[in-house]
Amino acid sequence: MDDGHPSTKRPQLACKCKNTCLNRVAQHPLQLKLQVFKTLNRGWGIRALNDVPKGSFLCVYAGNLLTDATANLDGLNEGDEYLAELDYIEVVEQMKEGYEEDIPEADKKLDRKEGKDGDSDENETSSSDEEDNASKTDKEDDDFRPGHIGLGLTEFNKRLRKRERNKKDKEKSETDEKEKEKDSKDTKDSKDKDTKESNADEDCITISDDEEVREPSRFNVQAGMGASEFISKYKSVRTLFGKDEACYIMDAKVQGNIGRYLNHSCCPNVFVQNVFVDTHDPRFPWVAFFALSHIKAGTELTWNYNYDVGSVPGKVLYCHCGAPNCRGRLL
Ligand SMILES: C[S@@+](CC[C@H](N)C(=O)[O-])C[C@H]1O[C@@H](n2cnc3c(N)ncnc32)[C@H](O)[C@@H]1O
Questions:
Q1: Which residues have C-beta within 8 Å of that of residue 61, sequence separation ≥ 6?
Q2: CA-CA distance, 268 to 302, in Å (whole number)?
Q3: Which of 74, 115, 169, 265 has the smallest number of Cβ neighbours within 10 A?
Q4: What are the structural domains, with CATH classification, of the chain?
């Protein structure tokens, strides 16, 4: 049966390592017992039926690959709740550039030397080394922060790409926004009291029908980290594509896998990583989900959609994640 995992659909790079290689993580099909269930007020969601250790790979986000233009059109016509913006050149390059910069130079030299001498064979590791490594790894796990370069999730700047809007539209949407902010606060206060089951769609209020200025909402699958201002030390892959190269979008509305049911939370227990499996082209990462903390069986799995509140003119989406630090709105 097709499990929706990209590896069943796409060719793998001719990697010579065995299937048991520990560097293969997202390439494996679903390993955990996950359940799709009906939430109280956010449509369907996913929960784990067993405890999930911190850092475990959960699943990928599979769907149809669209260009920016097709996604805009489809999003407006068919709905946009399953559009995931794939990471983009600058974001990926910025992450790679800072990678392991916090490792002391001496350690790097040692690694290089071991690699050269070929004496880094696992079999030659003494048992005391193993113990040292085990305790070191435990300690490292405690400090574990996803997202590279020593940044905690909260420090990331989110990015949701917008179409250019003309001045009049912009002013109109800014005025609308201010009024919405006021209304939404009043409405949210009364909504919070209402614990009855409601449909998430009812909370998506279309304020304007002006499709000209509406861009579909997409969750940004990777932290932007101010990528638009990022200037690489090295020659950027951008030079090969041109500055107007569009971003690619994964749309799980018609075809997708279990990843499409992951809801948003302002205090998520899942994080997302770009994984390059069948290509190193920075425009086409696999979008893979991992456990941000130890997740107890039965807990809903959620990630941070990284939407920018107010970024989609005419659309307000209230957040029902229930986290103490809930921002109140997704859009
Ligand atoms: C990718 S889908 C997630 C699966 C969805 N719940 C379903 O039933 O198919 C994203 C949509 O789920 C809903 N959703 C997810 N997280 C939410 C949250 N914290 N609060 C309100 N609605 C949420 C919104 O309607 C959003 O557009």
A1: 84, 221, 250, 252, 256, 257, 259, 260, 262, 272, 287, 288, 289
A2: 5
A3: 115
A4: 6-98+147-159+210-305 (2.170.270.10)
Residues of the chain with pLDDT under 70: 1-15, 87-88, 90-92, 94-215, 221-232, 243
Give the model confidence (pLDDT) of 85-103 as tens digits: 886 676 667 666 666 666 6
Closest CA to 26 of 50, 66, 59: 59
Give the ligand 1 atom nearest the CA of 262.
Answer: 3
CB 285, CB 304: distance < 8 Å: no
In this structure, what token pair is assigned to residue 303?
């990630």
Which atom, in ligand 1's list, is nearest to the CA of 264? 16
Strands 83-85 and 219-220: parallel
Residue in this structure with the two tokens 């638009």, named with its chain if needed: 228
Sign of the dihedral through C-alpha 308, 310, 311, 315: positive
In angstroms, what is the span from residue 325 Cα to ligand 1's centroid?
18
| pTM, 2 dp | 0.66
Instruction: Return the HEC string of 264-308.
Output: ECCCCCEEEEEECCCCCCCCCCEEEEEECCCECCCCECEECCCCC
Q: Write out residues with Cβ below 6 Å of ligand 1.
A: 42-45, 81-82, 200, 260-261, 263-265, 319-321, 330
Classify burial at 223, counting beta carbons within 10 Å of its beta carbon; exposed 0-12, middle 13-18, buried 19 or more: buried
Which atom of ligand 1 lies nearest, measured to the CA of 326?
19
Q: Measure the CA–CA gap between 75 and 254, rounded to whole angstroms.
A: 12
104 CA from centroid of ligand 1 (Å): 43
Contact 44, 37 (CB under 8 A): yes
Token digits for 171? Answer: 């002013």
For tokens 């790679």, the residue is 96
3-class state of residue 85 by DSSP = strand
Interval between CA 111 and ligand 1 midpoint (Å):
45
The pLDDT value recorded for residue 32 is: 93
